[in-house]
Design brief:
By secondary structure, the chain is α/β, with parallel strands linked by helices. The chain is 52% helix and 19% strand. It has 2 domains: 69 residues; 99 residues, no CATH class. The strands form 3 sheets. A 4-stranded mixed sheet has the order 1-5-8-11, covered by helices on one side. A 4-stranded mixed sheet has the order 2-3-6-9, with no helix packed on it. A 3-stranded parallel sheet has the order 4-7-10, with no helix packed on it. Strand 2 and strand 3 form a beta hairpin. The radius of gyration is 48 Å and the shape is rod-shaped. This is Anti-sigma-W factor RsiW.
């Protein structure tokens, strides 16, 4: 028997599918051929390994799958607020805008302490230190806004008078045709700034 035939009969031999004469002939060849003996030993080891794996209680595929899945990095769970932000981007952006605007506005409100006067006819006003005076013989056409100071109205204002973080005094001779706004609290000041911002944007 040559080695090629012997190798072809080895699998049948391990499966006990060879006839007695073929088994005897193969064994006689193995006694004479070291290479075929080594090949048969390797086949026997492989056959035993496959047998032990297929008869394992947990099953080789299950055990391998579990080990592979265990080595994979676990997916990080997102926090609830992150999920909410991703689902509501417009609301989140609006909320952030308002928070930033409120903080910046409060900061400016607390830091601004210089006198600021706004209006269309400022040349008719008298400013003494931190006091803004509308003389009794003057008529101001348009709105007047005074920040961080005292406002004394003796004459006439054909518009609104707004005093922010200050004091307003109206004499008996004073006449204001528009609204009088006295803003001396942070939230009122913030609301005033926000409404003015939107008004400026609408008129541009």
């Amino acid at each position: 028997m040559d080695c090629k035939l012997a190798v072809s009969l080895m699998h049948d031999y391990l499966d006990n599918d060879l006839s007695k004469p073929q088994q005897l002939e193969l064994k006689a060849h193995l006694l004479q051929c070291m290479d075929c003996r080594n090949r048969l030993e390797e086949l026997e080891k492989t056959d035993m390994l496959l047998f032990s794996m297929t008869h394992h209680s947990t099953g080789p595929s299950d055990d391998l799958s579990d080990r592979i899945m265990g080595m994979l990095p676990k997916e990080k769970k997102q926090k609830a607020w992150v999920t909410w932000v991703k689902r509501h981007p417009a609301i989140t952006a609006a909320a952030l805008f308002l928070v930033v605007m409120l903080f910046s506005t409060v900061s400016f409100w607390s830091q601004e302490n210089q006198l600021i006067v706004k209006g269309s006819e400022l040349d008719k006003l008298i400013i003494e230190g931190r006091t803004v005076i509308i003389p009794p013989d003057q008529t101001i056409t348009g709105d007047i806004t005074v920040e961080n100071g005292e406002t004394k109205v003796y004459g006439q204002v054909q518009g609104n008078v707004t005093v922010i973080d200050g004091e307003l005094f109206q004499a008996s001779t004073a006449h204001i045709s528009g609204q009088v706004k006295d803003i001396d609290r942070a939230m009122d000041w913030i609301w005033y700034k926000i409404t003015n911002l939107f008004t400026d944007v609408a008129h541009r």
